[in-house]
Specification:
The structure is a homodimer of 188-residue chains. By secondary structure, chain A is mainly alpha-helical. Chain A has 6 helices and 5 strands. In chain A, 41% of the residues are buried. The structure holds a DNA duplex (30 and 30 nucleotides).
Chain lengths: 188, 188
DNA sequence: TCTTGATAGTATCGAGTCGATATTATTGCA
DNA sequence: TGCAATAATATCGACTCGATACTATCAAGA
């Protein structure tokens, strides 16, 4: 397979940036489905995979590298469309949580990502790993949060009854260990 | 190096989409430099690497998966800022070409992509290849154009005096063989 | 307890992008 | 000559963007 390089005189760093410039545009275009734009779709997808501590506007803002003001509007737009519902937090009265409604779940299901033609399983595997590396480096460069799975966090503790979070000092529901957490820190 | 997967139950395809959702946002945030937004910056970068046949609004629109209307405004915005200048095509009076001004070149140079910390040379190489694959598959899925380098095109012909394009039936300047072409089709 | 500072979220601003649609030139083909 | 295709722009409402200002709430220290 011949792989066309974009610019022969480019460093790998510059080429990655140039490729990302285009790739992010191509990806974004494919993510505008129905009456959702790219950001709304990404926020909805995030909310569907985040645990109950991580569905607040500020967590979405951190995850999507957006300001709180913008995310506030995005979530309001999703709520207007009936795809998410706002819930007040019981512990901290400043915090609001946005959960998917059944309509939100259905919307997500009917707009699943398209298959990627022309890629072997091995290539797909390599691409996933490369993207994980790239996200990790992007986060390191900008001081963002990792937002990994609860199960892979240094604060996750498995017990006989189930598991709990040593940071929040809370018992976890079985499914929560496989959800994204705002407070995630990679195990040492 | 432990690589946190986003969702253990996810297929690679879904994981790639989820990773791209976030990576797109992180990359875009890093590309908003000075008074340029992500799209303006990407368009400016494209124009700096495209050959003279590929600097028209419609080519930029194809490259960035945007509509002509949007690109028209983007280029107008860049022109207002003095970073590009409009030139009428001599062959086809419908076509306009946008070339970088010296200010545009300087802006591009002073906003070069940041280094990617925490990545080895080997990882960087792998990532570049994975992204090339991903772009290729995205194009295949949506019927877009490849936009490769002139030199790697099936219409590129090397001669004793230099090179020429068999599609446009034109002699090429020496530097044009290493620029991006709108009409690019990968060599067979 | 009172104050102070940090945090969570919203409201608002102008600039710009988005898709969609319509319109004007211009080209090329029948 | 006529007609369809192409290139580009103009305009519309919805939305994102960063920036700024604002309110509400929490937490920690005097």
């Amino acid at each position: 397979m011949i792989l066309t390089r974009y610019y022969l005189g480019m460093t790998n760093r510059d080429e990655i940036s140039a490729l990302l410039d285009r790739l992010t545009r191509l990806h974004a275009a494919g993510r505008r489905v129905g009456d959702l734009n790219e950001v709304q779709r990404a926020a909805l997808d995030y909310l569907s995979r985040a645990n109950r501590f991580s569905r607040a506007p500020s967590a979405v803002a951190d995850y999507l590298a957006a300001t709180r003001g913008t995310v506030s509007q995005t979530l309001r737009s999703l709520a207007r469309k009936g795809l998410v519902a706002e819930t007040a937090s019981s512990e901290d009265r400043r915090v609001r949580r946005y959960d998917l409604t059944p309509e939100g779940v259905a919307t997500l299901a009917t707009t699943a990502p398209a298959a990627r033609p022309g890629l072997t399983d091995a290539e797909t595997q390599d691409i996933a790993e490369a993207l994980r590396n790239l996200v990790r480096s992007e986060i390191a460069a900008n001081g963002g949060r990792s937002f990994g799975l609860c199960r892979t966090c240094r604060h996750h503790v498995s017990t006989a009854e189930g598991s709990h979070c040593a940071l929040l000092k809370l018992a976890l529901l079985p499914e929560e260990a496989d959800q994204i957490c705002h407070e995630h820190r990679a195990a040492a």
